[in-house]
Write a structure and sequence with these properties.
The protein is mostly beta strands. It is 9% helix and 47% strand. It has one domain. The chain contains two helices and twelve strands, in the order αββββββββαββββ. The strands form three sheets. The chain has a six-stranded antiparallel β-sheet with strand order 7-8-9-10-11-12.
Length: 179
């Protein structure tokens, strides 16, 4: 984007394998909204979908692109009356961080049906994510961290093997984990 807010370059497209040509492009883009991070040292740009379980990895130095799907696949949604997307699958990722050696993604994985059922029982579903997925820079799974509390955002310090995260339900919202 230039100083006037105009795009200088555009790359890629929404990598849906299930969306047909009849789906409105704004609804598809809304369902595929992603979190992203870029590491200029290694040229890796990674994106993780807020809905579903989809990870995209661009290596901008080698001009490669890879799309990876977890068990819950790409974002699932219905089209609303106004043309917007209504999620029906899962809440997926809530943050992503690309380091020199790894890609870390915060994952929730709760089905919208389960959230609705909790509300109907008069309960508040947990807000945030209890999982951090660790991938190598090619997208191969390295480790899955299961946390004892729900978080949203992360930052990673590979030198100290520390994850700094924002905890959802705390008066002291900045926490650290050793990895």
């Amino acid at each position: 984007v230039d100083n006037n807010g105009q795009p200088l370059q555009s790359k890629g497209k929404i990598p849906s394998e299930t969306a047909d040509k009849e789906i409105s492009r704004p609804a598809l883009a809304q369902a595929w909204r992603s979190f992203m991070d870029y590491n200029p040292e290694n040229g890796i740009l990674a994106m993780a979908t807020q809905l579903g379980e989809t990870l995209e990895i661009y290596n901008l130095k080698e001009n490669t692109h890879k799309v990876l799907y977890g068990p819950e696949g790409e974002p699932e949604f219905k089209i609303g009356k106004n043309g917007s997307s209504i999620p029906i699958g899962i809440m997926g990722f809530s943050d992503i961080k690309v380091t020199d050696k790894h890609i870390y993604a915060v994952f929730q994985g709760v089905k919208f049906k389960e959230m609705l059922a909790a509300y109907q029982r008069g309960k508040e579903p947990e807000d945030g994510s209890r999982f951090i997925y660790d991938f190598d820079l090619q997208g191969n799974p390295v480790q899955k961290y299961t946390l004892d509390r729900a978080i949203y955002g992360i930052d990673i310090n590979e030198k100290t093997n520390t994850i700094v995260a924002t905890e959802v339900e705390s008066d002291d919202p900045i926490i650290e984990f050793k990895i």
